[in-house]
Amino acid sequence: MTCHKTTGEIAERYLSPKATQAVLDLLGPEKSALTATWSDSMRADKDYDAFKDYHFIEIQTGKNYQDIKDIDHEKRDSVTVLKKYPELLIDPLTPRTVKMAALKYLIHVIGDIHQPLHVGNSFDMGGNLCRVQLLNLHSVWDSQLIDLDMTQLKSKTSPLKNYGFINYADDIIKKNSPTLEDIKEIQSANYFDWIKESQNLRSIVYPDELPADEESSRVYCQSFSPPAVDPLLTDDYKKKAIEVVELRLLKGGIRLAGLLYKIFEIGSNSGPEVSMDKKQILGKLNLTNF
Asked: N or C, where is the chain less crowded by C-beta within 10 Å?
């Protein structure tokens, strides 16, 4: 998906030399942007069923992450990846094949967290149940807004050329022109801050802003509702949403670069070459073991 590729591409622009080399050692010459979608492709494999919960977090409006952990201490989600996979990458004894997969997951999950609907309100499956304009709201924020933005940018900058995620990353960086101070501020936030940012965007993401105690009653997010109640996303909505999308992609990329810097400054070892079958690799990656 373009969103993940763009986050990975932006991250590459801000990687330190040491982190760049460490990523190259683990992933080879393929751009990290292209490996950012690997985790989604693995969801079709039943052997990866235990990993499905790692792509999102569910927190009701007005609650914070600690509230849900107090209720369910064993809950596994995106935060578990952000906590544990850096440990696997830092550990010099982690086999190289495990580090490769852990890095791909980490790149992907940071992109997920910065898509507001991957921090769901626990009522509508991250907007997947919310029908708008023949799509669902999650798909709008995953891809449709980005496709629209890229089409508009292409018409302004390179109408006769191919326009892909590399061009899109270029334009996002040019439009925002983050300074060193901006980068430091963006990277100073921790993953609980990232989650809170996505939560706080719900008033923009949903076409109707409701109080927290009424969020479960959105008619267009109910399976029994007729298509006639599906809201129309206005041009004004799309304009504001695209601004949010661009900033989330930029922050996600800059923060990914910052996290990889921290990881590989501590442990840049690519791990021992150990012969492992698929089951053994998944066993090392499965967060239920932590």
From this structure: C
